[in-house]
Design goal:
The chain has 9 helices and 9 strands. It is of the alpha/beta class. It has 2 domains: 1-29, no CATH class; 40-272, Rossmann fold, CATH 3.40.50. The chain has a 5-stranded parallel sheet, sandwiched between helices. A hairpin with a 6-residue loop joins strand 8 (261-263) and strand 9. Helix 2 (61-76) packs parallel to helix 3. It starts with 11 loop residues before the first strand and ends in a 10-residue tail after the last strand.
């Protein structure tokens, strides 16, 4: 039997226009296109049922602001001025919010969207240097840069090298110039101190950080770790855990005498941040 009783799966329906019958595209085409785009969005199985409505919320002003901003983003798309930058420690719902916004934009508008974990994306780009794979770097980059809405999860998790900085800058600048909104998540706090090894500024580099500030609404919040709660936990459980839990910060992972350089915005001097460099594939 046809799945659409209106058009019998032809994609065309008959309408009455001031007494004159004419045919037009059936609404089921938009629904089917959105369903296909949702399947193509690379959303991990764990997050395929995420919505902004099934996210358990609790009285946390900054958290609720992040959820409200995501809802406004969905409702306004594609006429949005800025993307979103969700910042905070692991387990506080950043990826849920980002993926939920992506899913709901695709379902509502039929837009072509993509989800990528930043480390996985960079790994895929590196793999193009393997001549046996018969794949060019642009085969990976093109859908990322051209997606009408993009989620880049866990920004800053990859060690900053010249290649990483250049690759991420290419992606972000292309999307910025083409006015294609992006939703980012990061575990790294937005601290302006260039000497703080685990700040977002240091993890992504000054150039990219400056662009992100221009193209995104920054939403930084703390909260309880959803992963520590039982499956039937509710808002009161989250609130109780948040009140008793000390403020969580990302632990330092820097060891040894690594080296990296970050150009300061006020001079051409470079600050030694003691990271290792590296090339693509290293």
């Amino acid at each position: 039997m046809p799945s659409c009783a209106i058009c019998d799966d032809t994609g065309w329906k008959t309408i009455d226009d001031n007494g004159v019958s004419r045919v037009t595209r059936c609404d089921c085409l938009k629904v089917r296109a959105a369903e296909q785009h949702l399947r193509d969005a690379r959303i991990p199985p764990r997050y395929q049922r995420c919505t902004l409505e099934n996210l358990i919320t609790y009285p946390n002003e900054k958290f609720l602001k992040a959820v409200s901003s995501a809802k406004r983003f969905v409702e306004a798309f594609p006429v949005v001025q800025k993307g979103l930058m969700l910042i905070g420690p692991p387990g506080i719902g950043k990826t849920h919010i980002a993926v939920a916004a992506l899913r709901q934009v695709i379902q509502r508008t039929g837009a072509r969207g993509q989800y990528y974990d930043t480390r996985g994306l960079l790994r895929d780009i590196r793999s193009t240097y393997n001549p046996t794979l018969q794949m060019a770097e642009m085969d990976v980059l093109r859908p990322v840069m051209e997606a009408e809405v993009l989620v880049l999860d866990d920004l800053g998790a990859e060690r900053l090298t010249d290649w990483v900085e250049e690759t991420m800058s290419l992606i972000v600048n292309t999307r910025y110039n083409e006015r294609r909104p992006t939703i980012f998540t990061s575990n790294y706090e937005d601290i302006p101190d260039e000497g703080e090894m685990n700040s977002l500024l240091v993890r992504v580099g000054f150039r990219l950080h400056s662009r992100l500030r221009e193209m995104c609404e920054f939403l930084e919040y703390d909260g309880p770790d959803y992963r520590e709660l039982p499956p039937n936990a509710g808002a009161e459980d989250l609130l109780g855990l948040w009140k008793t839990q000390p403020r969580r910060k990302l632990p330092s992972k820097t060891t040894g005498q690594a080296r990296a350089q970050l150009k300061t915005p006020k001079s051409a001097e470079r600050v030694d941040l003691k990271w290792s460099g590296g090339r693509a594939g290293s």
